[in-house]
Amino acid sequence: MKHIFLWIACFLMGSFTFAQTKSKRPPIIDVHMHSVTLQQLQRDAQMPLPISGLKPPESVEQHIKQTLAVMDRYNVVLGLVSGYEYEGIEKFRQSAPARVWAGPQFGRPMLNVDTLRMRYKSGLFSVMGEVTTQYAGISPSDPGLDPYFSLAESLGVPVGIHTGISFPGITRAAPRFRVSLGNPLLFEELLNRHPNLRVWIAHAGWPYLEETIGILLVYPQVYLDIAVINWILPREEFYAYLKALIRAGFGWRIMYGSDQMSWPDVIGASIEAINQADFLSESQKRDILYNNAARFLRLTPEQTAKHQGDSKK
């Protein structure tokens, strides 16, 4: 009996310690997430990933539930979720409206601008993108996209644009995709046509390091996210790229993103890639995981106070 009481005491102490650790997790903003379709989940179940053992959920409902569970675990207080289908985006947003900002994902100028304006003004959409022009085989500065960027500029809506890379063999599924169209230098014309537009470079422009630094230097309204490169690249390569961006003086414009797509568990893996970076100070980690995005997204003092308060519950 004595041993049973000792075991119970140890269990309770351990549970209390775990609860304390969990409650002390600081808030995180994920600026790069996605809603998915059932067809996408089924397709991605056949795709090998560098993180072995990851399997997509079997349904859209499970995908949302598992994504929110990982967000809870790591205290991701805000996620920016985009998708190609309005119904799927809205289903995700309604699952956690206080924690999800939704936006349309598109590559070609096919969306109705008046419909988009209505969705922004009604609060259904809060951001624009991921804009996937690279998959459509066009430049992000293509004039056909100007009506969308003009709308975002007029409403103060931030825009995220895909750059850099995709999965090996992507041109079999997206034959118009070209690596060259992921160069952040292609942002220049749109940035000059829309000088008040807030833009963030998805995937940090990898592997275009020098070009990314050039854009950040000249255009202070541009930030970037480190989504996907924080879990799909070898850790040494990701750290080298991140170090170079910080060394160039842009640590205050780097935002955390997961690009979780069909695999909710990559949220945890990508967060740990930052937490385990011994070359980052604690303040630099907080900037990447929360502060930079809060500034870029223009969160109110009330919103940030709530996020900080949530982490202490």
CATH architecture: Alpha-Beta Barrel
Looking at the structure, what is the overall shape? globular
Give me the number of helical elements: 15
Biggest sheet architecture? 5 strands, parallel
Strand percentage: 5-15%
Beta strands, count: 8
User: N- to C-terminal separation?
Assistant: 35 Å
Describe the overall structure.
The longest helix has 22 residues, at 2-23. The relative contact order is 0.14. The chain has a single domain (26-310), classed as Metal-dependent hydrolases (TIM Barrel, Alpha-Beta Barrel), CATH 3.20.20. The protein is 48% helix and 12% strand. The protein is an alpha/beta fold and 313 residues long. It is globular and about 45 Å long. The strands form two sheets. The chain has a five-stranded parallel β-sheet with strand order 4-5-6-7-8. It has a three-stranded parallel β-sheet with strand order 1-2-3. The chain contains 15 helices and eight strands.
